[in-house]
Amino acid sequence: MIELRGVGYSYSGDALLSDISLTLAPGSFHFLTGPSGAGKTTLLKLCYLELKSTSGQVTLFGRPAQEIGRDGIARIRRRIGVVHQDCRFLDHLPVLDNIALPLTVAGHPPEAHREELGELLAWVGLEARARALPPELSGGERQRAALARAIVMSPDVILADEPTGNLDWEMSLRLLTLLTELNRLGKSVLIATHDLNLIRQAKTQVAARVLRIRNRHLVAAGADL
Amino acid sequence: MTRLTRRAQRLWRLVWALIKGDPRADRVVPPTGFTAWLTLFTAGAMAFLAVFALALSLATGRLADRWASELAQSATIRISAPAEQMERQTEAALRILSQTPGVAEARALSPDEQRALLEPWFGADLPVDSLPIPQLIEVIEARRGFAAEGLRLRLRAEVPGAVFDDHTRWRRPLVRAAGRLRSLGWVSIALITLTTAAMITLAANAALAANAQVIGVLRLVGARDTYIARAFVRRFTIRALTGAVAGTLAGMAAIWALPSAEEASGFLTGLGFAGAGWLAPLPIPLLAGGVAFWATRGAAFRALKDVT
Ligand SMILES: Nc1ncnc2c1ncn2[C@@H]1O[C@H](COP(=O)(O)OP(=O)(O)OP(=O)(O)O)[C@@H](O)[C@H]1O
Ligand SMILES: [Mg+2]
Fold first, then answer.
1. Does RNA-binding show up as a keyword for this record (chain A) (predicted)?
2. CB contact under 8 A, A105 and B216
């Protein structure tokens, strides 16, 4: 569904990423790891076209990225749920409206999905915070809300950037369980994380591939994972 | 034909979507207080000015037309001569006029008519017959007009007491001025429109810049450009429309409240709307709304170009 072929990227001057090849097929489960500043977030941005690769070929749902117009990008983003590292909420709207935002902008009235929204909110443990504004949430609550927003459209691909950075171990496991369940439904999942324990735990549940960014290149992680 | 109706339908759907609105879509973009007031105020003030420019244009237009038609149609010949020559010179003048191409009618005023003309100044029992008052000849011009200079020369040669007054001398520059004033009115309206567009573009740019983060998030969760643009366009169009309605009404009220005077007292009292002319300012709010629509739309799509 998402395919990168020999992709390179540089913000300015030196290349940050080069010759990256990656295929997110339906039902695949990937971890992406690497030191801070290696380019994990950048790689995810290339996948949902917030950034355009400076070399190589990105293909989304069978269409070359350079052929996708602005409306096409909007439609494709409805099929890719992203948990952003910095969450990216609208701070003037309550949590519930933020979670429903992908529905709203796609023209689906959230009222029609009240039940699902309620369940989703309950699942991430934010029922009591539904009316709160995002700046009033704790770091962990924000990440849970971000996850809820990422999956509200029932996307084909889920890209999660450090989704457990602020979560306790129990909550991290719940999140992992949700993502593996979605993966079993055929969704493709990619998690960028530093949390090696999470990766080890996941490998007991699903057949996950672990990739690491090293010296600008994407390599398979060592046997310790 | 079908393409035209399709276009009309599309335009109508656009307008309808704009009027009906989507409260939820409106809410995703927080309002920016000062841009709201700037737009409202600009549209109001500009509409107020536009009403005056329009009134000026219409009034001077009416004036110019009236003056031009009067001036084109009539002239006067005044004959001052000793009493015994008066009749002969009048006849001579009438004869010349009857031979002049372009004169539809020439007629010496009767003593009664002359008395009626002088009555306001000298009272009813003026002995016109015994006073050396000049004889007046009214000349009505045919549509194609006559050569005034040729007529003047002939009169000077054959009727020494005749003074030819074709009104043109003093009115022609007035007509030119009125015409110029009318064009200035239209130029003012064009300038007002451009200024409104510029101010609303500035306000929209400020609102778009203040909401850059919001716009970025909306794009990331899959909003199309038109969805984001519409939230801004709708807001600015409605503000401009509201402001312009208020400004137009205020301008019309101000003109209506101008102290009225006799028609004859001239130009200033002509500054107003006559009859159906009162409908003329009604398109001003629509113009303001249209200007706001296109200015904001342009600003929004320009701003969105920098957001992935
Ligand atoms: N917009 C930008 N302009 C210039 N440089 C940038 C920009 N965004 C990121 N960088 C740089 O690119 C490098 C990679 O950033 P990126 O966010 O992809 O790293 P990361 O692997 O996600 O790190 P972390 O684990 O800390 O989240 C960093 O050195 C960062 O400073
Ligand atoms: Mg990162």
1. no
2. no
DSSP label of A53: -
- 3-state secondary structure at position B252: helix
Contact criterion met (CB < 8 Å) for B28 and A104: yes
Any CB–CB contact under 8 A between B224 and chain A? yes
The answer to whether the pTM exceeds 0.80 is no
Rounded Cα distance, B218 and A74, in Å: 9
pLDDT band with cut points at 50, 70 and 90 for residue A94 = very high
Map tokens 């039940």 to a residue.
A115
Ligand 1 center to residue B209 CA distance, Å?
A: 24
Q: pLDDT, tens digit, for every residue of B146-188?
A: 777 888 888 888 888 888 877 665 666 777 888 888 889 899 9
Q: How far is CA A36 from CA A42, A212, B284, in A?
A: 12, 12, 59
Tell me the backbone φ, ψ of residue B274, rounded to 5 degrees.
-115, 130
So what's the architecture of A1-79+156-225 in CATH?
A: 3-Layer(aba) Sandwich (3.40)
At A73, list the tokens: 């990008």
CA distance B285 to B281: 8
ipTM value, please give it. 0.92
Among all chains, which residue has been given the structure tokens 């170009």?
Answer: B305
The band of A65, judged by pLDDT with boundaries at 50, 70 and 90, is very high
DSSP A144-186: HHHHHHHHTT--SEEEEESTTTT--HHHHHHHHHHHHHHHHTT
Q: Which residues of A touch B216 (CB under 8 A)?
A: 88
Name residues of chain B where pLDDT drops below 50.
264-265
With a CB cutoff of 8 Å and minimum separation 6, the contacts of A24 are: A1, A2, A3, A30, A47, A157, A188, A190
For chain A, which residues make up each domain, given as ranges? 1-79+156-225, 92-154
**What is the best residue among A14, A17, A40 to mutate for testing ligand 1's pocket, by most ligand atoms within 8 Å of CB?**
A40
CA distance B245 to B289: 10
Residues pairing with B137 in the sheet:
B77, B108
Interval B35-68: pLDDT, tens: 888 899 999 999 999 999 998 888 888 877 777 7
